[in-house]
Design a protein that fits this description.
heterodimer; A: 531 residues; alpha/beta; 7-stranded mixed sheet; 17 helices; globular; B: 71 residues; mainly alpha; 2 helices; 0% strand; membrane (chain A); sphingolipid metabolism (chain A); EC 2.3.1.50 (chain A)
Chain lengths: 531, 71
């Protein structure tokens, strides 16, 4: 009877929690969770890494003694007394851990990366030191790893008609930089379209997304400026910040207290030794962090930026086109005026099925970048078919091509995201990130399980991306699922069914929380879609 | 998960052991080395406890009886 009453109380609390999550809070119900696994999981992860590291030392000893052939580069005999080249931890890790399991990465694909794709079968006879292709193709493997959020990676001849026409008109290579003679009419059209899409004054596009960050941040900030960058920023942002020569301080991920403390300390104390005021303070954040699936707290950052008179650089590589009611990114998700963000950056690789990046903002900023950015002055301009692909994808999302295909895709992606996340939580996996983000990392923790998971899923014709130590913290290896508007409900159900089986076979369901089932959630009013 | 027989269940348990200790990624001869080291360590522990634990228990009991008498 006591247990029954405890059960009743728990049920009541669960229902209350559920109600608050979906009913009352309306648009502010965004729920981000970073659940911690039980402590034995961390112990076992360290144990696994420790044992494999010991065997790594053993194999290195065998190679040094000469009992085993060394397949990797090593110094010549005459150079054995010089400073060692291959002794650092990164080389040790590559030789002894990565090489053993590298059949799970760099898999050759022989079709377009749509919702399903074809893989070439690849086997290794000497434990992954060399590979050979057997000649067989694995057809119709479900693709949950490509950044194909709105499904624009397609080869439908009707949709690509304008791209083919522009290729005939302009050719494929531009053979010059934007500044010299590579400024085509189609580039100007794209830039105006991007500016209208985002709701800003002006924008500029570049041929490569990584180079957009790393080559433009040095043009905006320099010595004597302060960059406050989030803990989990992408390498391109970190590289750009380091190249600029500004002082970099890192604040804890999405933690507004940490950011405010750093801002107030920077404004009060100024530059390190001279105590002169900083020339500029730039806060660098991303819209969606691709390894965690978490979304930036934009309204709070904008309030802080206005209070302390800092500038904001928002990198929307994963969030443009993928979040927001009409695909405009995090500014639309949080209902924020785009003019409040000083520098909006994004890439066309993820949601638009093309390549390249853009920087958008006030006209003065963009005009300055046209002549001062390394990427604008020295890098080759964007290729015409790629430019036209972005133009047609953007027109589709905005509805300018006269159909509702774009808005249907944005809604389908939101629907897929909610469904997939809710079902995964219900099954008992630990998922990181915001409920709205189409990037879903499932935590796997142990190195053996990471490898077994990737191989098992490939056996079942599902291609997943698993990420391990250098890209994530050592105890938090994960499998990252990128959902797409092109995935049908049947495909998602198939993936979930196999995930359930593999999760049971490998004991991956570490979550200790109880979630209500998907059918309960879908009974609540759908206030997000169609409102 | 449904196991058709006990052998399959044991095979699944062995698979879990391979995954948890990280042995799964090693080559077969390395797996054999690790398994033999672990097995011999466990065998030594079992043998030592079989030989010494009863004697230790007896001595502890005698000691506690002596302490009782003394007090």
């Amino acid at each position: 009877s006591l247990l029954n009453s405890i059960g009743d109380v728990c049920n009541f609390v669960c229902k209350l929690h559920n109600f608050n999550r979906t009913g009352v809070a309306s648009r502010q119900h965004r729920h981000e969770s970073f659940e911690q696994a039980p402590i034995y999981v961390a112990v076992m992860t360290y144990l696994g890494f420790g044992i494999v590291t010991l065997f790594g030392y053993f194999r290195d000893f065998l190679r040094a003694v000469g009992l085993e052939k060394c397949h990797l580069a090593r110094e010549r005999d005459e150079q054995k007394d010089f400073v060692p080249l291959y002794q650092d931890f990164e080389n040790f890790y590559t030789r002894n851990l990565y090489m053993r399991v590298r059949d799970n990465w760099n898999r050759p694909i022989c079709s377009l990366p749509g919702p399903v794709f074809d893989l070439m079968e690849r086997v290794s006879d000497d434990y992954n030191w060399t590979f050979r292709l057997t000649g067989r193709t694995l057809h119709n493997v479900i693709n949950v790893g490509s950044y194909n959020y709105l499904g624009f990676a397609e080869n439908n001849a009707d949709f690509l008609k304008t791209v083919a026409d522009k290729t005939r008109q302009y050719g494929v290579g531009v053979c010059s930089t934007r500044q010299e003679i590579g400024n085509l009419g189609i580039h100007e059209e794209l830039e105006q379209l991007v500016a209208k899409f985002l709701g800003v004054e002006s924008s500029m596009t570049f041929g490569m997304g990584f180079a957009t960050n790393s080559m433009n941040i040095p043009a905006i900030v320099g010595k004597g400026c302060l960059i406050l960058s989030d803990e989990l920023n992408h390498t391109s942002l970190i590289l750009g910040a380091r190249l600029s020569g500004a002082t970099i301080r890192v604040f804890k991920h999405n933690n507004m207290h940490s950011l405010e403390k750093m801002l107030s300390e920077a404004v009060c104390s100024g530059q390190p030794r001279t105590h002169r005021p900083w020339k500029k303070i730039l806060i660098m954040v991303e819209g969606i962090y691709s390894m965690e699936g978490s979304v930036v707290r934009l309204p709070e950052i904008i309030a802080l930026k206005k209070k302390y008179k800092a500038y904001l650089y928002l990198d929307e590589a994963h969030s443009i086109g993928a979040v927001g009611a009409s695909g405009r990114g995090v500014t639309e998700l949080f209902d924020v005026n785009p003019a409040d963000v000083d520098v909006m950056m994004g890439t066309f690789t993820k949601s638009f099925g093309a390549a390249g990046g853009y920087i958008a903002g006030k006209k003065k900023l963009v005009d300055y970048l046209r002549s001062h950015s390394h990427s604008a002055v020295y890098a080759s301009a964007m290729s015409p078919p790629v430019t036209e692909q972005i133009i047609r994808a953007m027109k589709c999302i905005m509805g300018k091509d006269g159909s509702t295909e774009g808005i249907r895709r944005v809604r389908q992606l939101a629907e897929n995201t909610r469904y997939f996340r809710a079902r995964l939580k219900e099954m008992g996996f630990i998922i990181y990130g915001n409920d709205d983000s189409p990037v879903v990392p499932i935590l796997l923790y142990m190195p053996g399980k990471v490898v077994a998971f990737a191989r098992e899923m490939l056996e079942r014709r599902i291609g997943v991306v698993v990420v391990g130590f250098p890209a994530t913290p050592i105890t938090e290896a994960r499998a990252r699922f990128c959902l797409s508007a092109a995935h049908t409900r049947a495909m998602l159900d198939q993936v979930l069914h196999h995930l359930n089986e593999v999760g049971d076979a490998l004991c991956l369901k570490f979550s200790r929380k109880k979630y209500s089932s998907w059918s309960d959630l879908s009974d609540e009013t759908d206030f997000e879609l169609g409102s | 998960m449904n196991f058709k027989n006990f052998t399959e269940y044991l095979a699944w348990l062995y698979y879990q052991y391979l995954l948890i200790t990280g042995i799964y990624v090693l080559e077969p001869w390395e797996k054999s080395i690790f398994n033999s080291i672990l097995f011999s360590a466990i065998a030594m522990v079992i043998y030592t406890s079989y030989v010494f634990v009863p004697i230790h228990l007896c001595l502890t009991l005698q000691l506690s009886v002596m302490m009782q008498n003394y007090l």
